[in-house]
Structures are given as C-alpha cells and as structure tokens.
Amino acid sequence: MIAVVIPAHNEARRLGRCLKAMAAAVALARQAGHQVEVLVVLDRCRDASAAVAKRFGVRTLAVEAGSVGMARRLGAALMLDRGARWLACTDADSQVPSHWLLWQLACSAEVVCGTVHIEHWQPWQRAAMRKLYRSGYQACEGHRHIHGANLGVCARAYERVGGFQPLPAHEDVQLVRDLEASGAQIVWTAKHSVATSSRRDSRAREGFGDFLAGLQVRLDG
Fold first, then answer.
1. Which UniProt keywords apply (predicted)?
2. Which of 9, 73, 143, 198 is least enclosed, having the fewest CB within 10 Å?
3. Is CATH 3.90.550.10 the classification given to domain 2-220?
4. Of 107, 181, 114, nearest to 144 (Cα)?
5. In a 10 Å sphere around its CB, with 0-12 CB exposed, 13-18 middle and 19+ buried, how is residue 194 labelled?
6. The sheet that has 36-43: what strands, in order across it?
7. What is the pLDDT of residues 146-201, one digit of tens each?
8. Residue 151: strand pairing partners
C-alpha cells in the first residue's frame, strides 16, 4: 500500500486545495493498480481542518504533537502499521501534480527527493525577491534540495534509520541525511515539482515560510 502522510496545523484555508490535487494523484495511482491511503495528521488543530479532511473522505489522526517532526512520525507509524510499503510526504499548503505518486514509484529508488515551486507569489514579495529565490534554487535533476512537501521513501529504508525525528523543524532534512548515511539509494529529481505556498504565516519555525522571510530581510538590508 502507498501511504500519503500530510501534517496539518490549523490549515483549513489551504487543506482543501491540497486534498483536491491529491485526489487526482491518488486516482491515477489506483487506475494503475496501486492501493493508496491518504492520512491527514491534525496537529493541535483548532479550526475546521478536520471538517475539510472529512469532506474529502481521507483518514485523519488527531494529535497534540506540537511539532511537524512528531506529527510526521506519528502519521508514518500509523500507516506502517496498516501495511504501507511506500510513504509519500507532502504539506497541507502544497499541491502535488497528478502524476506525483506514479512518478515516485517509477524512480525505482528507496528515496525520492523532489523539488517545489511557488505558483502564486504574495503582493508584498517584490520582483527582486523572486529573482533572488530563483537564482539560488536548483530546479533540475541531481539537485540537493530536501522538502517535506515532496518526499517519498520506502518503508524498509525508513524503518532502518528510525524514521522522522520529533523535531520542530528540519525533520525532513534529518531523515534524508540519516538515509544517506545508511547507504540508501536516493533519486534527486525535478520532474514532479510540487506547488507550495509563499505565505508569511509559516506553520513550522525555520521552515520554508521563514526561509522566504529571510530572503526579504536580505533585500531590505
């Protein structure tokens, strides 16, 4: 079974777009004969995130983890117990392409690290910031970016290194570093880029939103 794990902390505004895109990816994978389950890990949600997930008919797990690392870890553990052989990870403010799951499997690797792109920049993020971001981002094969919004790993490799660590940030980076150290076969690809948010109100400290805010600070000097 392919398991998709999506952590969410008060993401009612964006979760619907995430799950709509995921539904298309799941449909293609199921048409190809794969069993797929989607899990939204509701971490300390006080908004309507649970209702949004219910509307899309996906599995949910309510936790009080208080960190994205622990939320991913708990979600992965549940899906492994349910028989998952492949863990596909994304974020609640992101939208995967329809071929996302099939492409991860087609890579025939233990780990697939994909890229992200920003589809809709915020009005306050001026052209100079966008240029600075793009100048430092390797949207190509063989890149070395690590994003929890676009990551896949086989169950065997994941369990071999002890899975996601319960970190408040960079749990995705730590997992991939642990996998590299274990000798896992990793594919670094840009062929199934995931659209992600350019918002200021980052849910994870030191996450992608804070990275973008840091670029703005550099420009403001």
1. Cell inner membrane, Cell membrane, Glycosyltransferase, Membrane, Transferase
2. 143
3. yes
4. 114
5. buried
6. 59-63, 36-43, 2-8, 86-89, 151-154, 111-118, 186-196
7. 999 999 999 999 999 999 999 999 999 999 999 999 999 999 999 999 999 866 56
8. 89, 113
Helix segments in 65-170, DSSP class H: 68-81, 100-106, 127-135, 155-160
The pTM of this model reads 0.89
Q: How far apart are CA 102 and CA 192, in angstroms?
A: 10
Query: Is the distance from CB of 90 to CB of 18 less than 8 angstroms?
Result: yes
What is the per-residue pLDDT across 51-110, written as a single tens digit (0 to 9) for each?
Answer: 999 999 999 999 999 999 999 999 999 999 999 999 999 999 999 999 999 999 999 999
Q: Phi/psi at 47 (nearest 5 deg)?
A: -115, -155
Beta strands in 69-208 (DSSP E): 86-89, 111-118, 151-154, 186-196
Other beta carbons within 10 Å of 31: 9
Q: Is 24 left (phi over 0), alpha (psi -120 to 50) or beta?
A: alpha
C-beta of residue 158 within 8 angstroms of C-beta of residue 89: no
How many Å apart are CA 72 and CA 117, to the nearest integer? 22
> Tokens 């899975």 — which residue?
163
Angle between helices 171-181 and 68-81 in degrees, nearest 10: 60
**What is d(CA 135, CA 217) in angstroms, rounded to the nearest whole number?**
16
Identify whether the C-beta of residue 49 lies closer than 8 Å to the C-beta of residue 28: no
User: Which two tokens mark 203?
Assistant: 């849910």
